[in-house]
Design a protein that fits this description.
Elements (H helix, E strand, L loop, with lengths): L2 H29 L3 H24 L3 H28 L4 H12 L3 H13 L1 H18 L2 H7 L5 H8 L3 H15 L5 H26 L8 H25 L4 H11 L6 H8 L4 H26 L2
Helix pairs in contact: 1-5, 1-10, 1-14, 2-6, 2-9, 2-10, 3-4, 3-6, 3-11, 3-12, 4-11, 4-14, 5-6, 5-10, 5-12, 6-12, 7-13, 11-12, 11-14, 13-14
Amino acid sequence: MSFSELFTTFANNLLPIMAVSAAGFLLGKTLHIDSRSIGRVLFYFLSPVLVFNLLVHSKLPGEEIAKTGALALAVMFSSGLLTLAGGLLLKLERPVLVSALITAMFANNGNYGLPLIAFAFGQDALSHSTVYFVFSSLTTNTLGVLISSLGHLDFKQAVLGMFRVPTIYAVLLAGLFNHFGVILPTPVDRTVSLVAGATIPMMILLLGLELQRARWTKHLSALGLSASVRLLGGPLLGLLFTSLFGISGVARQAGIVEASMSAAVANTNLAAEYKLDTSLVAASVLISTLLSPLTLTPLLVLLGK
C-alpha cells in the first residue's frame, strides 16, 4: 500500500465529501441556518425517495437483503457489547456510559456512508449500503430510543415509533413494485430520480451543519472508548461478520465500509431528548468524523484490491 494509493483514494473518495461538508459547516457558522429543518426534510422526504429509487432499480435478491440486514444488526450489537464491557472496566457513570454506547453503536451510515460508497464502489454497492442504512435507521429509532431513555419509554412505544420512520414504507413499496414487476412511468421515474439525486448532496451539507454545533467534553476516556470502537472495532467487526455470513463482492465492500463509519449525527438528537451527556455525544461525533479518513482511506485501498 503506497502513499500514492492512499492519497489518490483519499482525494477521489473522501475529499469531495469533506469539501461539501466543510461548506455546510461554514454556511452554518455564517448564515445561522436551521439544520433541524433541513434534517426533517431529509428524514421525511428526500431519504425515503432515495431508498425507494435505489431499491426499485436494483432488484436485490431477498437473500442478499437479509444478509446485509443481519450484518448491520450484528455490527451494532457487537459494538454495543464492546463499549459496555469497556465502560464497566472504566467505571463510567450511567449517563456517560449510555452516551458512549449510542455513539459506538449507531454510525453515520446515511450522510457519510452512502456518498462514500457511491464514490468508491459505484451504484451496485450503493444499493447494498442503502439496505444497511435502512436497518441502521430503524434500529436507531427503536433500540436507540430504548437505550437513551433509560427506562422512560416502554418497548411497545419504541416499536410503534419504528412505524413513524418513513424509510420503512419506501422499502415496502419498492418491494411490492419489484415483486409484481411494476415499471414506473417515465414522468414518475424521472421525478423520483430527480429528488433522489438531491439527497446525497443535502446529506453531506447537513453533516457539516450539524458538526458546527459540536462542543468539547471532559470525559476523555469515554470519548476514546466510543471513537475506538467505531473507527477500529467497526472495520474488524465488518470483516468478521461478512465472512461468517458469506457476504462477498460489492455487498462485502459496502458492508465493511458502513460498519466502519463515524458516529451518527442523529445521536446528538437522542442525547438532547433523553438528557444524556450532550457534550460527550457531540464530541464523539466530531472526533470520529475528523479522524475517520485515517482509518477509511487504507480500508478503501484494501477493499479495492
